[in-house]
Structure formats: C-alpha cells, structure tokens
Amino acid sequence: MEIKTIPTTPIDGQKPGTSGLRKKTRVFMEAHYLENFVQSVFDAIGGAEGKTFVVGGDGRYFNAEAIQTILRMAAANGAKHVITGRGGLLSTPAASNLIRKNATDGGLILSASHNPGGVDEDFGLKFNIPNGGPAPESVTNAIFEATCNINRYLTLDTPAIDLETIGETLLGKMTVSVVDPVADYAELMEELFDFTAIREHIANGFEIRFDAMHAITGPYAKAILEDALGAPSGTAINAIPSEDFGGGHPDPNPAWAKDLMNELMSDDGPDFGAASDGDGDRNMILGRNCYVSPSDSLAVLTANAHLAPGYANGLAGVARSMPTSCAVDRVALELGIECFETPTGWKFFGNLLDAGKATLCGEESFGTGSDHVREKDGLWAVLLWLNILASRKCSVSELLLTHWEKYGRNYYSRHDFEALPIADANALMARVSGQLNDLPGKSFAGLEVTKADSFAYEDPVDGSKSSNQGLRIQFSGGARAVFRLSGTGTEGATVRLYVEYLETEPSKLNGDVQLALAPVIEAAHEIADIAKLGRPGPDVIT
Ligand code: VG1
Ligand code: CO
After folding, report:
1. Which CATH entry fits the domain spanning 409-541: 3.30.310.50, 3.40.50.10140, 3.30.230.10, 1.10.1760.20?
2. Looking at residue 489, what is its pLDDT?
3. Which of 100, 271, 411, 441 has the fewest CB atoms within 10 Å around its CB?
4. Any idea what DSSP says for residue 346?
C-alpha cells in the first residue's frame, strides 16, 4: 500500500494543557490540524515503527472520523498493531488498562472529558505513555516542539475500516484489533472489589442510581452495576452514549448533574447516587440527602480502602493535587503513610504510582483513582464506595459524619470564573502574585495570612521541576485560598478560586458550606480584587 507524504506547515497553539490538546471541534476539523498533532506525537516519541498503540475515545462528535485518520497515520508511520474498542469507544480508565495489560507503547485518547461535545463544542486528544498514564511534561513539551517544526505527515489513501465488528483486520501492514471496550475493565474491577458483598448489599435493598450523563460509562455501568452486581435495570440512567451528550455538559457535579442531585437530596430517594463524566474518569458521590465533596471522598476512601480486597494490605501512600483540600493529609498522618502534594493534572501522579510511593490519588475536581491504572477512574471510585458501604453497613451520611467526628471537617468549595478575557484573568493572577511577599502577617475578613507562595513542585522520583502551579494563601487556623488558571478550557481564560476551612468543633460539622467559608471567600475577594472581573459571581460553584 502506498504511503503518502503530505507537506504541511506548523499550526499555532498546539500545546497540550492540563490533559492533552483541547480545542473547539471545528478547529480540530480544520485541514491538517489533527494530522499535524498526531504526526508530532509519533515524531516526539521516536517514531511509530514496529510499535503497538491503544486508540479510543469517548464517542463525542468527530470521534469516529478522527480515529480513522489516526489509524491510517499509525499504519503509514509503520506501527505494527493498534487496539481499539468496538466503535472506537473506550473510557479513559479502560484505555489506560488496555495500554498496561497489553504492554503497549502507549495510546491516543480522543476526548475533551467533561467539556460538552458537538460540532460547535469541544474535542480533544492526548497521548498516554506505556505505563498507561498521561504523558508527563517532558513528553508533552517534546510533542509541542514537534508541532512547531513539522513539515510533513504520513498517511494512507484507504477507505474507513469497520470498527463495529470484534476481531482483527489489516490496514496496510498494521493489524487493527477491535475489542469489547468493557470486558477487560470489568474483569479488573472484579479483582479489586468484593462483588459478592456488594451484590448481597444490593439484593438486601440498598438502592443505587448511576448517571452516565449520556457519555462513555453507560455501557460500563450497565455491565458492572446491573449485569454483574444485580442492581435492577434502570439503575444506570442516561446510559446510551451520544455524540453531544444529550446536549448537556457531561460534568458530574451538582451544577451539571442536577436531576441526579434532585433525586438524591430527598428523604425517599435512593441510598446512593453517582455520576461520571464524558470520558469516564471523574466521579461524583452522593448519599440520601448527602453530597460528598471530592476532597472528602479521597479522605474517606483512604481511611477505608483496606475493606476492599484489592487494598486489604493497606496503602503505600496517598497523593492529592495541591488545590485539593487537606482532609486526606490527616488520614495519612493517622495511618502513618506519606501524603504527596502535586500540581493539578493526573500526569503528576504517574511517577508516584509507578514507584510504589502512592496507592490512592485524588483531585478536588471529582477525580479519584489508584495504582490499578494510571488515570483517574470514575466507576472504580463508585465501586470502592459501594464495597466500603457494603462492608460497614452504614449510610453515606453516617460514614461521612463519623469521618468528620474523627478527623475534623475541611469545608471546601471551588468557584470558577469562566470564559474571561485572557488579559483580565492574567491581571488578577498578577495582582495576587505581586502581593505574595507582603501578605504574611496581614489580616483579611478577620483571617491572618500565615504563608503565601506560588506552588512549585519537584517530582520526588525523577527530580523534574514544575513551577507556577497556583497561588496559595494560607490563613491561621487551617483556612486556605488558592488561585489557579484552568488548563483545559477552549474559550478565553478561567480563573479557579479554591477555598477551604478546617472545622473540628463537633457541633459545627453539619453547617452550610458557603456560609462556613464566607470569611475565606471574602478574604480572597479582597486580596485579588475579584470585583475587577466585573462578574456578579462565579459561573460555577462546586
Ligand atoms: C481540570 C481539573 C483538573 C483535572 C483536569 C482534567 O483542569 O481542575 O483537576 O485533572 O481538568 O480532568 P484545569 O486545568 O481546567 O483546572 V478531565 O476529567 O477534564 O480529563
Ligand atoms: Co474526564
């Protein structure tokens, strides 16, 4: 088969962000845009010759065409083998598992995760390395470098191949294996969790609801929760993946998973509720009349993971992203294990997981995971919660309250100011960073600043350094405010304000979150002069 060499020129702005390259779908559909990036990935990793990759995506608009393009380019670049899910579908954690299980040379994951999908919405692509995790900065920098110097890409002139039939096909000299997207992942979950105990708990009347948000986890949730664990049909809702996620944001938080929230925040709703995002790596956990903040979820899972067979021997350590609340730190202290604080983005957990320094990891942005794969994993978190609840035989709210009584409660919230003019967002960050040295000792809204800095990280495994990872302001008494610019948006800039406040007084553990945080929010507004953004309030509060 004739390999075609297509001349091209560099395209601006192909720099991967927090999690791969994310742009408007129409940008990805422009001539050479996808091709330039894919060729740059291959060039940055020393070529594709003789290599095996996993390729799959969350099924959003343009997924199907983009996969065919990637397959042709992989074949033209000499790849030996590509593994993909039926229909080109794979959740991000399932892709990570396949990359690891088949000892491949990495994978290309097509997703813009929790961002909406459609021709006028978002698309994304990221490269994962052979450990199954998102490429670290050294690799994403090399990819970006390659996009700046590209002058040709390689492809084949072939029709689209059938991805609906499980089995093997040849594309040029490259083998394409189409596999069941769910089977290997479900098998892994069954190894980690006590399915018998969860099945019994459900059979005894424990009612669950899982909202797949019209995204990739529908088939996974149906197979695992309904077929394997015996939850009644209809437990997984919005379970058929659609190209535009039913027109919504596939983002599992109280703002976007409103129907699920309404169902659970009542006295006669299900016992347990959960949702996942576009590509299946995020999770939101709810109980009857009870919302679990992702930071609390990480702390509760860390304290109770030993109840699941896969973690029965205890945890080597835990890691959280810097803006994630410090709730898990106190659990780690109690367990006598190390707690690492990393920059935002799952790629920073990879080395800690590979080196056996951390077993569980988590982010405030509804992400939790473990060393079973190298991505955060929505359904995994749901199953670990279910395993713990089946073992402790208590409700979500009881488990949470007992946890707070023992460790105190980190009231926590994130306020997002979205799609701002880039200059306004940069000016706000500059206002805060300009004050960092002078803040300690000053008081705002009755809170005294004890420490303020710009977060920099040195990877304890390979010594690589990342600076400018968010501005931290620590107040006396365990309160904290963090400012950061998002690295996943596709429109203007998004400022994230993360606030937390530690409460240990037993009578104050069940308060209103925004009220408890009011002084920290006020202090943050004063310091950053947020009013200058000219917004009536945050666009999203989680
Ligand atoms: C956001 C979250 C971050 C997460 C990233 C990818 O990044 O804050 O914690 O790792 O999304 O998640 P940012 O740079 O916009 O704050 V996903 O599920 O979108 O792959
Ligand atoms: Co995601």
Report:
1. 3.30.310.50
2. 80
3. 441
4. G
Burial of residue 386, with CB atoms counted within 10 A of its CB: 0-12 exposed, 13-18 middle, 19 or more buried: buried
- For the chain, the maximum distance between any two Cα atoms, rounded to a whole number of angstroms, is 74
- pLDDT at residue 418, as a whole number: 95
Predicted confidence at residue 477, as pLDDT, reads 86
Which member of 96, 111, 113, 321 is catalytic? 113
> CA 108, 109, 112, 116 torsion: positive or negative?
positive
Q: What is the pLDDT of residues 308-318, one digit of tens each?
A: 999 999 999 99
Average pLDDT over residues 151-162: 97
Spacing, Cα 365 to ligand 1 middle (Å): 7
The Cα 1–Cα 24 span in angstroms is: 33
Residue 18 has pLDDT above 90, yes or no: no
Is residue 344 lining ligand 1, measured as CB closer than 6 Å? yes
Of 33, 29, 18, residue with least CA distance to 112: 18
- Taking the C-alpha atoms of residue 425 and residue 422, their distance in angstroms, rounded to an integer, is 5
For CA atoms 186, 187, 193, 199, the dihedral sign is positive
- Residue 424, pLDDT > 80, answer yes
Q: What's 184-407's CATH class?
A: alpha beta
- Ligand 1 centroid, distance to 398 Cα (angstroms): 30
Which protein residue has the closest C-alpha to ligand 1 atom 19?
Answer: 113
Whether 389 contacts 399, CB under 8 Å: yes
Atom of ligand 1 nearest to the CA of 279: 18
Residue with the nearest Cα to atom 20 of ligand 1? 113
Does 184-407 match 3-179 at the fold level? yes
Read off the pTM.
Answer: 0.95
Across the chain, mean pLDDT equals 96
Q: Determine whether the shortest distance from the Cβ of 347 to ligand 1 is under 6 A.
A: no
In 377-536, alpha helices (H): 378-392, 396-407, 422-435, 513-516, 518-528
pLDDT reading at 231 higher than 90: yes
Vertex 369 angle, CA 182 and 333, to 5°: 155
* Cβ(361)–Cβ(370) below 8 Å: yes
Return the CATH architecture of domain 3-179.
3-Layer(aba) Sandwich (3.40)
Residue whose CA lies nearest to ligand 1 atom number 17: 113
**Annotation says 233 is catalytic:** no
Residue spans per domain, the chain: 3-179, 184-407, 409-541
